[in-house]
Amino acid sequence: MSAAKPVVVYSTRLCPYCVMAKRLLQQKGVAYDDVLVDINAERRAEMLSRSNGRRTVPQIFIGDRHIGGYDDLVALDRKGQLDPLLRDAP
After folding, report:
1. Residue 53 is part of a domain; what is its CATH number?
2. Residue 1, in any domain of the structure
3. Beta strands in 1-90 (DSSP E)
4. Which of 27, 58, 69, 77 is the most exposed place for a label (fewest CB within 10 A)?
């Protein structure tokens, strides 16, 4: 599935939840921008701003919508709401 909206995953290199979130997106065939906030302080500040101060990773965005972390992503998928969100045009 090709996402109509850009998908951004703010993550770190050692975070198991980041790995699982990216794996779920890969299984759906979704391309995403992986922003490693553990090596780029400016992008960490961007993540904090976009996520209203949430410091945990991953922080996932589909278009301008803040999804939250891995648990939030999986919850959307289980409700059947993730695929339509990924398909929606901006």
Report:
1. 3.40.30.10
2. no
3. 7-11, 33-36, 59-62, 65-68
4. 27
